[in-house]
Give the backbone structure.
Amino acid sequence: MSNNFLDFLRHTDAVPLFAIFGIAVPFVAHYWYMLRVKQWEMSLKHTMLEKGMSAADIKTVLEASRPDGETKHGCGTC
């Protein structure tokens, strides 16, 4: 098995494949993380609405739950 993999790495076809994975995996991981954060926030909002909290209270809780410097999008830069 390892000989086949090493033979594959010797071919120039492996370079673009690794480049694609090197770009695609972090990109997908970032957006998967952002999706999970949004799902958590929506669940929290739903729970707070069921408890009868006002929109201002919900906004305060969500802003307090974000780390310092993190924006609404979660990237910290925009």
